[in-house]
Amino acid sequence: MSISQHLNSALLAIIAVALVVLAVDQLRRPQPPTANDIAAAVALSQAQNCVNGIPKAALEP
């Protein structure tokens, strides 16, 4: 194998590792809430039989 082939292989390996690092970083970042998440939170907060999103029956002994 010639030197240029070794360099090409090394460069491809570096690029592959960089892409994996970027993908893992993107997956670990918290995602912003979607419109459905916001709508669900509003619906829970406006529910009359809930306290902070928890049904009142669940809070009673």
Q: Keywords for this structure?
A:
61 residues, mainly alpha, 2 domains, two-stranded antiparallel ribbon, 3 helices
Protein architecture, described:
- The chain is mainly alpha-helical and 61 residues long.
- The chain folds into 2 domains: 1-30; 35-61, no CATH class.
- Helices cover 69% and strands 7% of the residues.
- The chain is built from 3 helices and 2 strands.
- The protein has helices at residues 3-28, 35-46, 56-59, and strands spanning 50-51, 54-55.
- Strands 1-2 form a two-stranded antiparallel ribbon.
Topology:
Layout: H1 3-28, H2 35-46, E1 50-51, E2 54-55, H3 56-59
Short description:
The chain has 61 residues and is mainly α. It has helices at residues 3-28, 35-46, 56-59; strands spanning 50-51, 54-55.
Report the count of strand segments.
Answer: 2
Major sheet: order of its strands?
1-2
Morphology call: rod-shaped
Number of domains: 2
Low-pLDDT segments:
none
Q: How large a portion of the residues is in β-strands, by DSSP E?
A: 5-15%
Radius of gyration: 25 Å
